[in-house]
């Protein structure tokens, strides 16, 4: 068969299989999928093992721990001083001190006493020393005075002691036979200290579940290996291994399986030797995801759900065999991690002997409108910032898509959009499910336009210990955030089309402008392209605007670059005008990879990707500050950092000028 005929046949086969969508014949709700999954699982802890105390950090106790000794094991002094009989000190006063003869013994910690404290005597004792027979109290050395007389050494006391003063009695901390730690407790440094105090060298803990992790797909490349066009590094494998470890289990990496049935079958069989098996990703050569076809061969009961009415996460496949969970997670990182934490993490916690995680929710307000797809519950990652009053929270969506690796690391939590909703309007109160941590306000909140030059300013401040939260929402989004008092700094580069003036015309009452730096915007293109080489930016734009085969990559509405681009184009709408990139780098990489032929971006991005550059206009990248926040220490430090010589030099190195 000719290669072109074979390619057409592959295309027909792919389209036919994709149209069937046989793996999604029954899309169920998240609640139904979870119920089916748990119905067939063995969620009990995976046995017991004994480990040395030095290796017990983070482990879960498999049984109650009963003390076989008293702690302390004897009456001991908690201060440096003198062991006495309290009765001998009665009536002691400044004007009528009591003198006690010192015994010929010093009781240091770790030494058993030889002499009894007889009436009228005292014994020198150090902190931790064992209280001698006859003594029932300790007086601090600071409240006494030593006196040498012809008949020996004496100590004088000017205040009386009470029985038990400055003495830790035997068993006062832990008594023999007492349950000191309970089954199911996770061992931290504090619990390990208790175990050491009762003399344990090893402890019985729940065996860590072994979780096999297999990444699938011909497009997946292991980190550290050369990347090829169209391939992606295996981030899911690393993320899942770390997440499994965080849950108290042991990850067993199986590597990357190609889209080939034999290899997949062998690796799945290997993974089933563990307590659980996780697969992610895998797009075959024209036949869709092969993983579910291999997992579909499992029995007892096998696949219990494939296709869940969630966004992200619809392709999730849940299976059980012999009480073991087998899960195929979506290939996109955000989808994979969301479904992992929602469906898999609770199962691993149970197998590791951990109690269910407690979900914390906080009320917030959505500052922007969110569209949604009806028919599926949609979960949106958000970053939280405090409002102007310091009490309310605004939930900014992290709209990076299910393929983003950074969404989980940048998110404070997520909100759910009902399956029947088509949108959630700006200003709507929402409930945000926190991702395992309380919301701690950062020292500096930066909301607005993204620029790599900003790293030169923020990087130094972060290195000095300042905490910073930066949300890239575009210039108009940052300006709106500043008006609402939700940020300290709003980076903007907005040009007034009528006057060509940057930023100042957009200020509202209560907002101030801090001068930032200048950067050159222009047309980026692949070097050697005759449609752009040797022309000015205006000439090139006019020449290519009407060429159907000259594709523009535009910027998102609301960005300063989009305003500049629209002014350059006037009424023209070149091919690709409605294709929007969310950053200067995204414009440059689209041109570098030949997905587009030109776009408007900063000169630094053109240099980074080896592109040609036609200067268009020097723009002002400035910072809007709410007047009410101008005197905050973090804001003052940010403004001062702009004038630091090291920051100015770093900006110059990126072609940005103060």
TrEMBL record:
Pfam families: MoCF_biosynth, MoeA_C, MoeA_N, PBP_like. It comes from the Bacteria. InterPro entries: MoaB/Mog-like_dom_sf, MoaB/Mog_dom, MoCF_biosynth_CS, MoeA-like, MoeA_C_domain_IV, MoeA_C_domain_IV_sf, MoeA_linker/N, MoeA_linker/N_sf. Gene3D superfamilies: MoaB/Mog-like domain, MoeA, C-terminal, domain IV, Molybdopterin biosynthesis moea protein, domain 2, Molybdopterin biosynthesis moea protein, domain 3. GO terms for biological process: Mo-molybdopterin cofactor biosynthetic process. SUPFAM superfamilies: MoeA C-terminal domain-like, MoeA N-terminal region -like, Molybdenum cofactor biosynthesis proteins, Periplasmic binding protein-like II. One of its GO terms (cellular component) is cytoplasm. One of its GO terms (molecular function) is molybdopterin molybdotransferase activity. Keywords: Magnesium, Metal-binding, Molybdenum, Molybdenum cofactor biosynthesis, Transferase. SMART domains: MoCF_biosynth. Pathway: Cofactor biosynthesis; molybdopterin biosynthesis. Catalyzes the insertion of molybdate into adenylated molybdopterin with the concomitant release of AMP. Belongs to the MoeA family. This is Molybdopterin molybdenumtransferase. It comes from Azospirillum humicireducens. The lineage of its organism: Bacteria, Pseudomonadati, Pseudomonadota, Alphaproteobacteria, Rhodospirillales.
């Amino acid at each position: 068969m000719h290669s072109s005929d074979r390619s057409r046949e592959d295309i027909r086969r792919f389209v036919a299989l994709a149209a069937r969508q046989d793996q999604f014949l029954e899309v169920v709700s998240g609640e139904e999928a979870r119920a089916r999954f748990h119905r067939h699982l063995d969620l009990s802890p995976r046995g017991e093992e004994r480990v040395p105390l030095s290796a017990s950090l983070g482990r879960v106790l498999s049984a109650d721990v009963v003390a076989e000794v008293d702690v302390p094991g004897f009456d001991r002094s908690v201060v440096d001083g003198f062991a006495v009989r309290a009765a001998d000190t009665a009536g002691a006063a400044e004007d009528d001190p009591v003198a006690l003869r010192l015994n010929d013994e010093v009781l240091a910690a770790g030494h058993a006493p030889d002499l009894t404290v007889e009436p009228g005597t005292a014994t020198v004792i150090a902190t931790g020393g064992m209280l001698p027979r006859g003594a029932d109290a300790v007086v601090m050395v600071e409240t006494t005075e030593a006196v040498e007389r012809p008949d020996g050494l004496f100590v004088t006391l000017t205040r009386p002691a009470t029985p038990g003063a400055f003495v830790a009695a035997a068993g006062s901390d832990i008594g023999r036979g007492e349950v000191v730690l309970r089954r199911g407790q996770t061992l931290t440094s504090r619990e390990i200290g208790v175990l050491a105090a009762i003399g344990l060298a090893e402890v019985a803990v729940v065996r860590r579940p072994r979780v096999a992790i297999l990444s699938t797909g011909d497009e997946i490349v292991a980190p550290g290996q050369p990347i090829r066009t169209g391939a992606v590094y295996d981030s899911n494998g690393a993320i899942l291994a770390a997440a499994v470890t965080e849950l108290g289990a042991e990850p067993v990496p199986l590597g990357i399986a190609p889209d080939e049935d034999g290899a997949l079958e062998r690796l799945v069989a290997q993974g089933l030797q563990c307590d659980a098996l996780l697969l992610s990703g895998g797009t075959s050569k024209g036949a869709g995801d092969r993983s579910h076809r291999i997992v579909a061969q499992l029995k007892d009961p096998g696949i219990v759900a494939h296709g869940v009415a969630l966004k992200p996460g619809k392709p999730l496949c849940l299976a059980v065999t012999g009480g073991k969970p087998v899960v195929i997670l979506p290939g996109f990182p955000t989808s994979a991690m969301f479904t992992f934490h929602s469906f898999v993490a609770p199962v691993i916690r149970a197998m590791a002997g951990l109690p269910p995680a407690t979900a914390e929710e906080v009320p917030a307000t959505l500052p922007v409108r969110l569209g949604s797809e009806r028919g599926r519950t949609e979960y949106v990652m958000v970053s939280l910032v405090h409002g102007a009053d310091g009490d309310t929270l605004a939930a900014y969506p992290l709209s990076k898509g299910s393929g983003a690796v950074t969404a989980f690391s940048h998110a404070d939590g997520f909100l759910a959009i009902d399956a029947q909703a088509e949108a959630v309007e700006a200003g709507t109160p929402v409930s945000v499910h926190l991702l395992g941590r309380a919301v701690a306000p950062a020292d500096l909140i930066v909301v607005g336009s993204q620029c790599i030059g900003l790293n030169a300013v923020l990087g130094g401040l972060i290195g000095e210990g300042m905490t910073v939260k930066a949300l890239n929402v575009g210039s108009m989004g940052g300006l709106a955030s500043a008006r609402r008092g939700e940020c300290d700094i709003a980076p903007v580069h907005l040009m007034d089309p009528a006057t060509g003036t940057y930023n100042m015309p957009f200020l509202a009452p209560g907002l101030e402008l801090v001068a930032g730096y200048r950067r050159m915007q222009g047309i980026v293109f692949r070097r050697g392209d005759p449609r752009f080489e040797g022309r000015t930016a205006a000439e090139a734009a006019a020449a290519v605007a009407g060429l159907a085969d000259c594709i523009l990559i535009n910027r998102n509405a609301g960005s300063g670059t989009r305003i500049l681009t629209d002014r350059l184009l006037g009424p023209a709408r070149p091919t690709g005008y409605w294709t929007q990139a969310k950053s200067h780098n995204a414009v440059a990489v689209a041109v570098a990879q030949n997905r587009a032929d030109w776009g408007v971006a900063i000169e630094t991005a053109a240099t980074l990707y080896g592109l040609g550059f036609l200067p268009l206009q020097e723009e002002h990248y400035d910072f809007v500050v709410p007047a009410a926040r101008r005197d905050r220490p973090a804001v003052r430090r940010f403004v001062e950092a702009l004038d630091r010589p090291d920051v100015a030099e770093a900006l110059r190195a990126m072609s940005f000028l103060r």
